[in-house]
Amino acid sequence: MSQKVATRPAQHPALIPLAALALAACEAPARPQPGTAARPPAAAETPPLALAAAAPAAEPLGEPKAPGDVIASYRCANGERLRVSYRSQDAAMISYRGETHFLPLARSASGARYAGDGWQWWIKGQAEGVLSRMPADVAVAPGAGVLCTAEMAVAPESQLRPAVKPAP
User: Residue 111, Cα to own-chain centre: how many angstroms?
Assistant: First the structure.
């Protein structure tokens, strides 16, 4: 006596690829080969697209993000100029040698230190700061860097208003 069992089509065919993706994510991480250095897990396991999605979008220095932001100009000891837009105390956008870099606020023992995109900008007060190249594998930039002295610092609101000429 044989019994026939009716097969039923899958009710949610879209779940099959999702289930496969979920199972693939459970795969054990690959072991490093002998003789190779292991990478730190946070940097090694974060997909590039996730990093790009988490990073804030760069904005031109001339367009302030918030009313409290400050844009400052510095003259550096090497003769070059540095322009910094401080973004609500949590980040700085620096413009140096024709390039703009986003530097999030970083931990420091004293002063305000911004680090990222291969650069470190460390200020103690408003009058001066030190700009340094920062290798990717270090927490704090090595070496002395270049000292930069403030030329001018203004709130963006004053930069965006047209200049009013006094009446003769």
Answer: 19
Q: How many Cα atoms occupy the beta-carbon half-sphere of 144 within 13 Å?
A: 5
**Distance between the two ends of the chain, CA-based, in angstroms?**
112
The sign of the torsion formed by the CA atoms of 37, 41, 47, 52 equals negative
- Neighbour count for residue 84 (Cβ, 10 Å): 25
Record the pTM.
0.53
Q: Which amino acid is at 15?
A: L
The top-level CATH class assigned to 70-158 is mainly beta
Residue pair 70/153 in contact by the 8 Å Cβ criterion:
yes
Domain chopping of the chain, boundaries:
70-158
Task: Report the 10 Å Cβ neighbour count for 114.
Answer: 27
The yes-or-no verdict on residue 134 having pLDDT over 90 is: yes
